[in-house]
Task: structure prediction
Amino acid sequence: MAGTGEAHLLTDAADTVLSVHHLQVEYRTPGGVVQAVSDVSFDVRPGETLGLVGESGCGKSTTGKAVLRLEKIASGRVVYRGEDLAATKRGPLRRLRRKLQMIFQDPVSSLNPRRSVRELVVEGLTIAGRPAAERREAADRVLADVGLDPERFGPLYPRQLSGGQAQRVAIARALAIRPDLIVCDEPVSALDVSVQAQIVNLLHDLKDEHDLTLVFISHDLSVVRSVCDRVMVMYLGRICEVGDVESVFAAPAHPYTRALLDSVPRRRAAGGFTGPALEGDIPTPLDPPSGCRFRTRCPLATDRCAEEVPEVRPVGDGHFAACHYAGITADTVRVPAGV
Amino acid sequence: MTAPTRPLLQVEDLRTWIATDSGPVRAVDGVSLTVAAGEAVGLVGESGSGKSMLARTVMGLLPDRAGTSGTVLLDGVDVLTASTRVRQSLLGPKVAMVFQDAGRALNPVVRIGRQITEGMVRHLGISRAEARERAVGLLTEVGVPDPRRRLANYPFQLSGGMRQRIMIAIALACEPDLLIADEPTTALDVTVQRQILDLLDRVRTTRGMGLVLISHDLGLVAGRTDRVAVMYSGRMVEEGPTDAVFDSPRHRYTEALLASTPSLDAPRARRMRVIEGALPDPRRPPAGCRFAPRCAAADAACEVPGADSLRDGVLGHRHACVHPVPPGAGGVAADRDAALMPADETRS
Result:
């Protein structure tokens, strides 16, 4: 996982909506500086949905926030349609941010409890100083877009909404200022299955209607598989694997991706799982392992993995992995399932 | 079904309601469920289905505002009418529970060692020293490295996965016949969830313990239970052998729930099947079938009170649907091929 490098980036930056180079985000903690995101590069192509997956502490949410500069970028570049957001001053950044929106996991607590739905969805326009008539029109339009009757839901407050309705309001709010790219941070994780499907379909429809590009952050591999075009797997602040959803899920090249997929409970697998369990816990980010950060839990790890940080390299068509032994199936080296 | 003379847990027509300012919330509304010794039963449903309230009723962990009717026989003793003393004597040796959030279920200011030994000293009547030795054994069993040193730790010093292992050790301390695990892995990362599920399987098999696994995650319950019960809005809508329910769901809700759950095995579809609408108000549930307002197959017959009583089927596969899905029509498509393969044999 300890992946660095840029082999997976498109050569022509004009083909991307967003291009992130060597992104580094750090947190100061009482125990020292934590590199939450460490030398991560990726690009987002027009009209695609890019999934960011990984477990807690892998840096997926921090990456999502850093793209909108909601986190301080320690180093690296975040290029949105030719402009480096990391180097943009506050004024121009505000203008650019209207093109970049974010939706959060907990829909109810991400909305101001003292504002009505009608006010909430057009807050962005209010800040931009748009006239009241335009705001009213926009509120009606976006609420209808997300399937909420403006008459019925407009006067309500967040606490009167169900989780699914609140998430619809959060989406409407992002849409109101006509964004280009929306970063969705675990948008369906707090929702029940039946509601989750409604929101996933809604995002899918809105993406087509409004020409949106999505970055979809989730820990749920099954949801990512059905929602995303490409997926990037992260571990402890670094990239493990990037590629088309179909190839990554069908033939994971990185041992961590494989272990993640093997950990999803499956109905038809013997014992409920398709492969052996990973040993141990995620190491502390205060003192990440040298070389490949996944090596302490990796069934394939050798001395080389402790010494050399693996670079992202191609393992197939549009499919890249940051592992010295990418593509070697664990079966060849696999130890008996240590269950 | 290998039904012994007296089931370990027998819930009959249980109703649990909670008083609120706007009337009682009927959290569990006429549910019956039995668990045989050594059996693993899954209890699935979305939030508001009543699955956790059912477990809490069995454990006697209801808030003061709650009321109950019906019977909950735990090894023949009705826990709803038993005295506090009798009930407490059952908690631990007969039944124990593992909660979703181990971080909050553990006492933050008490060392792990005391939290594990407390119940043993009280219920098993053994000395503190002996309980400590047993605690070391338990922590080894649940896969906590360096167990002797861990006894001196406080919960905050451990990771989420380790805390859940400690919770399981505490639950196992008095060697319960039945373990109720309420969303035991929901707060955990997927690779850690995997470790905990494997652990639960292992202790269940080695100890011959009964298990009620409560989860909103259908895939999780599918691979590791003998029978499964599906709840919706306080009612049980379907119940039967796990494979039968998942391969050929009969109730329209079960079928819709399965179809709207994304899975790694199903064909990749951009649009997901949705269940339109929302749960009914639990204070004023519709007469008849509670799923009817969201069901495409519903008609006037579904609104007749009592329409959602459970109907018997083959091999104990029961459902509460007036217009059931034809047998064999509702399983997840991709699984149909997989079903030809002899899977599941290796399951404990």
Observations:
- The domain at 9-225 of chain B is CATH 3.40.50.300 (Rossmann fold).
- The first helix of chain B runs from residue 51 to 59.
- Residues 82 and 134 of chain B are 30 Å apart (CA to CA).
